[in-house]
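Model: Ready when you are.
Researcher: Fold this.
Model:
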Amino acid sequence: MMRNFNLTLVLARLSSAEANALAEKSMLSSFQIITCSFIVEFCRSRRAKSLLASVALASCALVSVPSSAADASAWRLDQSLDLPEGLSLSGAFRSRFENARNSVRSGTPNDQVLTFRTRIDARYKENGRVWQFEVMDARQQYADADGILGTGDVNALDIQQASVKLALGSEATTLKLGRFTSDYGSRRLVARPIYRNTFNAFDGLEFTHIAPNGNQVAVLATQPVQRLPTDKASVLDNDFEWDKSSNNRRFYGVFTTQPAPLAGKTGGYFDRLRTEAYYFSLRGKSDTILDSSINTLGLRAEVRAQPGQFDFEVEGILQRGDNTRITADGSVSRGDHRAEYAFFELGYSFAVPSRLRVLFEIDYGSGNDLETPQRQERFNQLFGVTAFAYGPTGFYGVFNASNIITPGLRASFNPIAGLNLMASYRHFWLADRRDSLGRTKESDPSGLTDSYMGQHLDLRARWDVSPLSIRIEVGAVIYKPKGFQERNSVFTYGGAELTF
């Protein structure tokens, strides 16, 4: 395996040369030069004690911004390169420090990690075609060998997107071929992660059509890409291995969106109603699984937030499927998959400059009933994300949408321009007390443990520094568990991302 090639370091050195050349031509402000230098030096000194070093350097850059820069537009890599017509180049660099204490997940209860993520996205548009090539380098430092570090944190230098999108008659109808990432609907089932350090990618095709009335349909036929390597030692060492997909695992889907099905028909609130209907099918086989299928059918409706008005979201999902496997004694075992998920949210946005919004939300995801071992009833989130619902993933990530009942309250507001504060408070119950809790692998097959699993408070501050294209984010989750652990679990994180 390759260990020495580091895209982050290469990019930093290229950025250093670029910054010096442009500075000589007086094409960059003092802020831009300092920012480029910050990326260079931070990437070269990857043994920094913590992310506080990057935050401190970013702060130095901020105080160096001349008054004229405050009115300037955000700097982009394209602005400093003489690119051919139709070609664009962008990217981002992110570093984040996470610290977990008294974690309820398997592995060491106390762990920490410093993650780095660099991505470069190149696009070329010509004659109705869009060629896209995106590479990403996601690495870590300081994680413990007996912790929960995995491919959600590390994916050293690999291709995330390599595709061509063809316009079929018009830009309203397109066909994408190759490797790509996608977001669908609420992002609970298919998403390109934002908080998590690595992405979900697919090899295959994606057909989309937008009708004149705005209705949309998308069709997927893909093979999910497996992030490699997967063994703990290689992940800890940031080892390189090409990601790959396999015909043994396939993912299909049809997703329809109706942005305003009642527009002009109700003369009021429900004119803003948006609806979605979809079907996904995940199929696979392996040495021990002869055939496996999870068919997912869902409906979602929402009225999006507007100042001075109530908003809501409701989503219901059914999963049905089959599972035929070879048991340890060589016999064939046949089972089925029957799971459900439901979500409801009611919010209100105040008509104030801070854009204060408060909401009530509740989730239900089914869990396994041990009385029917041949039936899998644990809800499967496929390729979705959970950070926006149950708190950060990474080294927290206690909960997902499996075997859960969780009501909660959430509030967010912007005290000043560019700064968003959010607080989320939730209680958690097991849908089936004998099945495991979220991602913890903790369970009580006897069912004697109470179904109540405690409460958590999720706090986050996010500052979009304009016009610097820097996002600084810090947060904490305080989890007071019940059942499997009585000690309070505390998770904190802080990071910064530069988009260029």
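Researcher: Now this one.
Model:
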Amino acid sequence: MIEYVEVGVGSRKVSVRLAEATFLVGTGKSLFLEILHKVVSGVGKKLPRLGGDWGLYIQSGDVSYSVAASRRRIRQSISVKGEEAVFEYIPAKPAHRLIKPIDMAIASADVIMPEVKTEEHVSVVAEEDIERLNRLVEVARKRLGVKTQMLGPYISPRSLIDANARLTSLDRHGRNLAGVLSYLSLRKPTSYDAVKTAFRKIGFSVAVGLAKPGKIGVVVSTRDLKMPLSKAPCSAKSFLVIATALELKPDLLLVDNFDYCLTRKTAEALAALLRQKPTKLIAEIHNEEVAEWLDIPNKSVVEVKL
């Protein structure tokens, strides 16, 4: 699990030691979450194009990774137990190189935590070095490439979704919630029941099923009312999406605009869920008081200036 994060934009930088729940206040909070999400969720994929100069450093124990990007070059560093590999990508040429501990051209230095692959003829000694470095990269990928779920800045689940769209992950706005709930009800009924139980604690019930030919629908109800999911109160919709996200068991749950529609009642119920899960929450908030609403022993409020 990632324990420490640094994000830099231009000449500005913010450092965060992650708690079980970390709340971000200040300026550039959404950008912090965006950079962290795009890198951590994209291990092994192409580096994100974010524009301008930016950087990220993440650490878990004796394993760390950093990327420093500018328009002219992108440099990545991986360190495991003090052993380091450094990669450089120059887009204009383009040039892909491993520059430390040995200097050689590689196939792709424009992916996050790249493997050392080369078409050049190398000596037996160099082949051994390449194998050792690829083992180092694999360790870093496993330790730092954690499962990440991004939500927000606005959560707006739809009432209906195509019946064939039983999905295993949420989009960041929760629009496909009906498909995910359908998947959980069929494949992971214990998780589906946990979502329903949590939802009842804030005074609502939820049901998912075939609403009309070819469409799966979600209905939300109270003691007195029944309504399609899209017509439910904002706080209830946000709670249902976050509760479902937690049942998908991400290592990191990143929520942009976390306090949008949040009430004390839903905050207390979310805190109860978070205390039961190993997931770490990183949430962007506008009102610092919101952090006090969540009864979580290990939490922190960090001011961001990016």
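Researcher: Key takeaway?
Model: The mean pLDDT is 94.
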